[in-house]
Amino acid sequence: MPDALREQLLALDERCFEQPASDWAGNVTLPAELARFYREVGPCDCNLDTAGNPFFIPSLAKLWKQQAGYRWHGLTGERLAGWSEDWIVVADQGADPFIFECSTGRILFDQHGGPWAPAPMFDDLWQMTACLATFARVWRGAGEDIFAEDYSVNPVYRRELISELAKLLGDSRRAEDLADEFGW
After folding, report:
1. Its domain of life (predicted)?
2. Domain coordinates of the chain in residue numbers?
3. What is the pLDDT of residues 147-172, one digit of tens each?
């Protein structure tokens, strides 16, 4: 799966390359699954277009900086209440974080602004990346036809997205919920 994910991102003109654990700038131990993900898939500041703000997956070297505003205050550095030590933001959409739960490997999601109550969204990093890349691939493939006359996402592309997501998630209801969550 790592090679397929890397190929998906490269097909979207995103940069991917092996990133060693030594690129990690965090003051907590880099979880083994994150180290493996950056070694094998290696997304490097990927901006994946979709309805609304793009999904952003930082490089490993920038991942620790991505925690500002969640784990600590971006200006003062003061630790923020309500953020679990078990969480690392691995991607976002307009500051809404995709959170790697270190103890389980699941990806949680929440709206920014707190209080934090993230809910499980993806089984793991691999599934998250495949799904976010699928949003971008369908978006790009639709071109100017992406919107219906009322500026909603064209139902043809919504159905295509849900079909593709259902294969990745193993559940068409989850795929529909995911499409709804991100404005499709």
Report:
1. Bacteria
2. 2-124, 130-181
3. 999 999 999 999 999 999 999 999 99
